[in-house]
Amino acid sequence: MISPARWAAYEALRRADPVRGTGKDLASALSDTRGLVADPRDRALATEIALGVERWRAALDVRIEAASGRDVTTIDAPALLSLRIAVFQLAHLTRTPPHAVVDDAVEMAKRAGSARASGFVNAVLRRLL
């Protein structure tokens, strides 16, 4: 089961994507996803994850490219977003065990319609660990 905070962060980032999203800014997208998370602590975590991914996007992409051996522009959008969220958490948030971060990233890729890329997500994150 995917953490509600991670899924809300995923949805907010997906909606705020300037190319594939709804064209909303991140603040509006976060506001739209508040209903996905009942607990205020989870809402705060979702916000922290989404803002952190945006803040550290370039550095996250460099780590993803190094671990995957692929340019991020060639990675499926749901898989890339799942990877960015997981790499941010592994690098900057220490309260969640790494195995839970990896498991949720794989499940997010599957739920977002990128089931074929879930093995790729798992391999990249295991390589980073």
What do these coordinates show?
The structure is a single chain. The protein is mostly helical and 129 residues long. It has a single domain, classed as NusB-like (N-utilizing Substance Protein B Homolog, Chain A, Orthogonal Bundle). Helix content is 69%, strand content 0%. The protein has helices at 4-16, 26-32, 40-55, 57-68, 77-92, 98-111, 118-128. α5 runs parallel beside α7 (118-128). It is globular.
How many H/I helices? 7
Total individual domains? 1
Question: What is the CATH superfamily label?
Answer: NusB-like
Radius of gyration: 13 Å
- State the shape: globular
Please report the distance between the alpha carbons of the first and last residues: 21 Å
Mean pLDDT over all positions = 92
CATH level 1 name: Mainly Alpha
- What is the CATH architecture descriptor? Orthogonal Bundle
